[in-house]
Amino acid sequence: MAIEIETPSVGLSKVAVSETHGEDSPYFAGWKAYDENPYNEAYNPSGVIQMGLAENQVSFDLLEEYLEKHSEATNWGNTSCCFRENALFQDYHGLKSFRKAMASFMEQIRGGRAKFNPERIVITAGATAANELLTFILADPGDALLIPTPYYPGFDRDLRWRTGVRIVPINCDSSNNFEITPEALEAAYNEAESMNIKVRGVLITNPSNPLGSTIKRSILEEILEFVTRKNIHLISDEIYSGSAFSCTEFVSISEVLEARGYQDAERVHVVYSLSKDLGLPGFRVGTIYSYNDKVVTTARRMSSFTLISSQTQQLLASMLSDVEFTQNYIKNNRERLRKRYEMIVDGLKKAGIKSLKGNAGLFCWMNLSPLLEEPTKENELALWKSILHEVKLNISPGLSCHCSEPGWFRVCFANMSEQTLEVALRRIHDFMNKRECMKTIV
Amino acid sequence: MAIEIEKPTVGLSKVAVSDTHGEDSPYFAGWKAYDEDPYDELCNPSGVIQMGLAENQVSFDLLEQYLEKHSEATNWGNRTSGFRDNALFQDYHGLQTFRKAMACFMEQIRGGRAKFNPNRVVITAGATAANELLTFILADPGDALLIPTPYYPGFDRDLRWRTGVKIVPVHCDSSNNFEITPQALEAAYNEAESMNIKVRGVLITNPSNPLGATIKRSTLEEILEFVTSKNIHLVSDEIYSGSTFSGEEFVSVAEVLEAQNYKDSERVHIVYSLSKDLGLPGFRVGTIYSYNDKVVTTARRMSSFTLISSQTQQLLASMLLDETFTANYIKTNRERLKKRYQMIIDGLRNSGIECLKGNAGLFCWMNLSPLLEEPTKESELILWKSMLHEVKLNISPGSSCHCSDPGWFRVCFANMSEQTLQVALTRIHDFMDRRKAMKTSN
Q1: Do A21 and B67 touch (CB under 8 A)?
Q2: Model pLDDT for residues A121-144, shown as the tens digit of each residue
Q3: Which residue of A has its CA nearest to B54?
Q4: Which tens digit of pLDDT belongs to each residue from A218-234?
Q5: Which of A180, B49, B124, B360 is placed for a possible disulfide with B286 were both Cys, Cβ 3.0 to 4.6 Å?
């Protein structure tokens, strides 16, 4: 009897076979359900509405108008030397005009309350790359970053997969609107220590994803005091800074630093991107702004693995150095997002659903805990599944964001038309009505 | 007396403080000299001529012509939804049209002798990213890749810096035109074993940088047999495949696999990029083509850290699907590079300098070993310095490429005008005359 000897297949690395890419999580069922049955106003009005994707589609017309008027932004001014130079430009410093435009844009978003030096801007292909890059630079494999919960699920992959760095959560809860407290910071730090894990920094997202709210100045000061005392780093991912509903409510860590003459600034690094504020996730435009010279130099060298296309840098340098355009864009974008936010919060309120008071971002943080039979993860998952399959809405459950309290969900509102949002709200209303009726009958 | 207690600066990771970024090498003096005194035909005719940069500037006019005729490639066809859809597209699969275009282009470059499936094309921001990504996937920290010498200096950083993977050289020398032999492969493998290092794969560059020559079919077959017998991977960086001087001389590993019906192909991965063949290094366009499903899936997920701008994908999808354009481009580009190569070879020969017989790439591999006082790295470095400071040419010394035979230099010829190349050749001629004269008088 012949025994078939199978040729051993050629092995891959531990990183390759690990599951830290995160795609085996149950929430991918949500994406699957949407892909298989996507809502379309005309062709598929009973399909799944995608409310799990934090995209900004409310201000494209402003970008399109700009492009219409400024063809030189995309055709290299019709001069051959411009195309040539641009196509050859692979310098990891990034186009000077682009860095200047980004610095300027970041200043405008902060209402001029902080200054940004173009020489401290490092370019990366998206914030995903920026966050990973900083993690490689600030922490060794096995070390940890402290991150307040709930947090963006993507961090589990972005910060840990290839770096081998760990995340230790700073637990926040609804008792104080999920605000970060010094006690929670201390507790997380101690937890890491008790596991013999070296903490290298704190990473905050401000405005917060998934909370959809800005971090108070006093809390930023407390966080800064904490990281200074522990002599660790602070990364502030400000990717939603331009999506704060009003210009004045957002306080950037850069403002706090400026107010104190940049004392202890060498431990602070700001991440930014145009994927959310400008709605250009496809263009892969991220930046690291660091107050630490060695980090800037090292990040710049490391950005060789993830540079922004010079063609795209050119387009954005043009657009973002047009102050008239940017001022109008920032103002209008804020207003439209606020309007959408109000629409969804009112709609949810009418359906008897409360949300966390938000003031920024492309989503709201909805509280469905009253609907849970028991305050458990399993119940939250079951509720999420029925919202997906019965109500046909794909929303993000708090568990996927490591929220310690079951029953909270992130609901995106800027990646669809107002009409579609209306449809979603109606479905939620009907769903809540049905549940009310069932309660009454039982 | 007050003692100033310096506050401890906040620490960075081991990766951050290591010098594997490679920029402290003595060869950066060459770049420095060029930056401080760059040749310009009109303004600075006695400046340093940059011959250390492998850029392709000989075929830009063809690209410019295309862009002139096809404005829809860069303005989203003036349809609103075109811009919007493109700006939102951040799917790590990459634009289907772009992948199809790349697969097509790669087939044309190989004269149709190999087929490429668009679903196996993974996009990365440049070949730099592609090579690093594959290293993360195929090897664990501390493992090794075997690389034939001389090799592209950038590999030291790209493959090792963040991955922690080692490079063990496969020694090749001038006794047989630097061809890779089974003995050299075996020796390198054994060397790794003796150091208790696990070899995970072989990485070849074909056509070779810095040799400027294609690898023979029989050698490719031997390499394939070697990696199969050791059950390890083979990465074939074919970034210069479109820069071979004739259509037939280049044999890709893809053709060898096709000829053997893809047996054992699950260990083979091809890297490609448009930085050399199309002269678009700024656009950051790289791809991994793997015959291994798990590698494709994992690489795709990992490419999230280094995606190609969708704006740029769109432009290239347009351009590379235009077969009239690509057929003409490939043919003309080859002819022009061949002409440049002839020009530099003849010029060098007239100066009494021999080069390795080349048939591809943007450079020639020049033999200055007769000029060395002693066949040592130190003598080579001294010679390199006088080329830089006396002759005012920045060329790449063999030791920066880990060449075991001292005295060889890589000289780029495609990143300048013919006139500038003439000036460089004249300078070399004069330099050689002076040396002959000095010898005679001594």
Answers
A1: no
A2: 999 999 999 999 999 999 999 999
A3: A88
A4: 999 999 999 999 999 99
A5: B124
Q: What is the mean pLDDT of residues B131-144?
A: 98
What CA–CA distance (Å, rounded) separates A429 from A15? 45
**Is B137 one of the annotated active-site residues of the chain?**
no
Q: Do A315 and B311 touch (CB under 8 A)?
A: yes
φ/ψ bin of A309: left (φ > 0), alpha (ψ from -120 to 50), beta (otherwise): beta
Determine the angle formed by the axes of helices A182-194 and A217-230, rounding to 10 degrees. 30
Nearest-angstrom CA–CA distance, B343 and B336: 11
Please enumerate in sequence order all residues whose Cβ is within 8 A of that of B234, keeping only pairs 6 or more positions apart, or say none.
B201, B202, B203, B204, B223, B224, B227, B253, B267, B268, B269
Q: Which pLDDT score, from 0 to 100, does residue B27 have?
A: 73
Tell me, yes or no, if B276 is annotated catalytic: yes
Q: How far is A371 from chain B (nearest CA, A)?
A: 35
Cα distances from A245 to residues A221, A250, A359, B296, in angstroms, run 22, 9, 6, 41
Extract the tokens encoding B330: 């490939």
User: What digits encode the pLDDT tens for the residues B253-312?
Assistant: 999 999 999 998 999 999 999 999 999 999 999 999 999 999 999 999 999 999 999 999
Q: How far is B375 from chain A (nearest CA, A)?
A: 34
Residue A438 has a pLDDT of: 81
Spatial separation of the C-alpha atoms in residues A421 and A416, rounded to whole Å:
7
Disruptive mutation site among A69, A88, A140, A412 for chain B (greatest number of B CBs within 10 Å): A88
The per-residue b/e assignment along A9-47, b for 16 or more CB within 10 angstroms, e otherwise, is ebbbbebbeeeebbeeeebeebeebbeeeebeeeeeeeb
- Burial class of B346 by CB neighbour count within 10 A (0 to 12, 13 to 18, 19+): exposed
Q: Under an 8 A CB cutoff, do A309 and B283 touch?
A: yes
Per residue in B70-127, pLDDT (tens digit) is 988 998 876 667 999 999 999 999 999 999 999 999 999 999 999 999 999 999 999 9
Which backbone phi and psi does B118 adopt, to 5 degrees? -55, -25
User: Residue A181 has what DSSP assignment?
Assistant: -
Within 8 A of A306 by CB-CB distance, chain B residues are: 125, 129, 305-306
Token pair, residue A311, equals 């063609």
ipTM of the complex: 0.96
Q: Cα angle at B174 between B172 and B178, to 5 degrees?
A: 40
> Omega of the bond prior to A150 within 30 degrees of 0, cis?
yes
pLDDT tier for residue A5 given thresholds of 50, 70 and 90: low
Chain A nearest C-alpha distance from B212 (Å): 21
Could you tell me which residues are beta bridge partners of residue A169?
A147
